[in-house]
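Homework help board

Subject: predicted structure for assignment chain

Our instructor gave us this sequence and asked us to write out the predicted structure in token form, then describe one feature. I got the tokens but I'm not sure how to describe them. Can anyone check?
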Amino acid sequence: MARTSRELLMLQDHLAMENTMAQFMSACSELCTDPQLKTMCQNMARDHESHVQMLGQHLRTTMQ
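My token output:
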């Protein structure tokens, strides 16, 4: 299904936000001294990285 240019821009914006959050949570995990909080931040970073991969793949298949 073809996406409108507005939908593609929204997907790109969301991809950029997810990427920023992945980097932020990764940086937070490095600053944490509490092991539980560190693990939580690492898990959140992985979740956002997964979203980046999923959105990137969706954009690639949509653009073809």
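Reply (TA_rk): Your tokens look well-formed. For the description, you could write something like this. The chain has a mean pLDDT of 92. That's the kind of observation they're looking for.
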